[in-house]
Protein: Gliding motility-associated C-terminal domain-containing protein
Amino acid sequence: MKSKKQNIFLTLLSLLSLGLTAQTINTGDLYITEGTIMSSVGAVDNKSSGNLFNDGDFFVYSHYNNDGLVTFSTGSTKGITRMRGLSGSQEISGSAPIEWYNAEFKNSNVQPAFYLSNEVNIFGKADFQKGIVDDDNYGGLLVFEKGAEATNVSDNSFVDGKVQKNGKDAFIYPIGDKNKYRFAGISAPQEILSSFTAKYFYENSNVLYPHNDKAEGIQIINNQEYWTLDKTAGNSDVMLTLSWDETSTTPADILVSPQSEIHIVRWDASKKLWIDEGGIVDSDKKTVTTPINVSGYNVFTTARVDGGIILACSTLIVHNAVSPNGDNKNDYFKIDGLSECSTDNTVEIYNRWGVKVFETNNYDSNGNVFKGFSEGRVTISGDRLLPTGTYFYILNIKYSGTKSQTIKKAGYLYLSRD
Structure:
């Protein structure tokens, strides 16, 4: 994003308003002011000497190539580039990255509608009205900068290929494959210089990552789809959310009740093994989220895990509301039936950034309960009053009965000061 020059002049060598072969070729400084509408029926070609500032409304009905500077004025939030094909697909190409504040993709002539071979950086909103953006086959990249988001994403309009997110925002990736939108999401990283790149594959991961090679407790691995998530900059880690759907999450036994046994699994390249990253299911939204930051990156999918509920723990009840306001109601994180299961247990609680705020052994044995303060062996300062919000708990229970086993239960917990 650059500030516009004091003396703006326009070198528009070819802008023929009549005829479908018209081209917009810019070799100088082209400034589209706020409130101004400009259209190009033919291809847009911003040459290496061209500087194109769009603070207005730019309709592009054909291809868009940039070898110079395409950006918007510092502080401007009004500029939008609308890719609207009149016939056939539209190429977004060039040797220099493109900066758009807002973008609109709307082309129903053919799919994929947009061939992205350049890098496009979005600073505001990308509106996926109609048409698939293919950067997988053309080597391009769609990048969402700090605060940017994608809207109206559907099976009819998404990115087929990689999408990169920069900054410290939580984000939903507008990704899909083979006419199917299947999003992934990340929690907010702690560092502003963080960057994560995701991609969706509508194909069986077993070919490259054998499903028979899996950690104990993983029963069934999704054999029709998988995602990749890679850390491309920074030191922060994130929690991962994957979407699930009856038409693409197979076999169907993964989704049977209880759906709490749907987890996210990751292929560990060093161990050559699928490992369990855990899972908290939102059945209404059809999503599963890791309860803490993932332990590694690259290949992920959904799976069915062994719930491991034993007879002695069948009455275990977790109360996920905590309001330590002195009214003797929900003053602490209460777990009924835990002592009947086993005193050999641990409780860990994390905030939405995956930072551990509480940890203890043999929970509720000697006043060691979570009351909304950071206590115990944690990664932030102890005795710190925590803010209102959603947290995640992990409960590990070791049980020695007729069959020795370990139960791992994870879920949401809401802390309120009211």
Observations:
- Residues 311-415 form a domain with the Immunoglobulin-like fold (CATH 2.60.40).
- The two ends are 43 Å apart (CA to CA).
